Amino acid sequence: MQSRPRRNRRNTAIRSMVQETRVHLDQLIYPLFLVSGDEIKESIDSLPGLYRFSLDQLLIEIKECVDLGINNYVLFPSIPEEFKDSKASYSYDPANFYLEAIKQVKSHFPQVFLMSDVAMDPYNSDGHDGLVQNGEIINDATLPILVKMAIAQAKAGIDVVGPSDMMDGRVAYLREGLDEAGFEKVGIMSYTAKYASAFYGPFRDALDSAPKAGDKKTYQMDPANRREAMREAALDIEEGADFIMVKPALCYLDIISDLQDISEIPVAAYNVSGEYAMLKAACMNGWLNYDQAMPEMLQSIVRAGADIVLTYFAKDYAKLLSR
Ligand code: PBG
Prior knowledge:
Layout: H1 12-17, E1 28-34, E2 41-43, E3 51-53, H2 55-67, E4 72-77, H3 97-108, E5 113-115, E6 131-133, E7 136-138, H4 139-156, E8 160-161, H5 170-180, E9 187-194, H6 201-207, H7 227-238, E10 243-247, H8 253-262, E11 267-271, H9 273-284, H10 290-304, E12 308-311, H11 314-322
Parallel strand pairs: 1-3, 1-4, 1-12, 4-5, 8-9, 9-10, 10-11, 11-12
Antiparallel strand pairs: 2-3, 6-7
């Protein structure tokens, strides 16, 4: 036998040397949930190990994560029902506690990368990412609201805004709006291929942000479609995105791979709440080994072509590395 692939798997040193994919903490973004109030650290039933934090607790959590080597964060707010309206006006209200949190995080930890969520759903009494009129999600009338939201976040000090709404034309619209307001340095990570997925369930529980009527299928992509992701990517890149994203990650590794092939800007993947919940549940039941299955999952996403992974596993992964 001339070729024996097993020779390169003989011992740990060789296996480490020939490893093709390494997941580094620098490429992970840790999503955190924010609530208004003080001294709140609330567990989330469908996301064991994750919490809703009030700002004081959030700062403590970030300090702990920074010490573990996590530098990148994305923040999502849970908005009390009384602040919601059909135009998501609280999203750019100067008194908004989410904007205050952005300010505080960036002033306590100026070295961290902080990304926002740009979409109407946390603030929308209709629970949709866009403006609802007569049961329809109106594209163009949503854009000015998204720009106001993004500019408010930029003023608060956000590094990169993350439009997760899937309205057509929003990347160009946001870019122009941010530039005109003097925020040409604020980047855009576009949720480029965001699918109408069942795997967002636990996130919507965490934020109480599920649509009040209907579903998100007229704006989020059909899970059946592959070529359409290329179309979305071409548009976002042309419109000035700094990063493109595929979401969810695990059922969409082919899409991550496709976009990595064509993109000259970094490709991110969102390892979403349902993917986290699924693995956690199996591990808590003793059906899978967490310390083995969790890094394997992250590795598969990076191996498929993700340069960056948004993942709820970031903290556990950092702890695992430090052991
Ligand atoms: C909202 C938004 C969602 C997620 C991120 N931003 C949910 C949705 O579109 O309904 C999902 C994240 C996750 O499931 O982890 N625009």
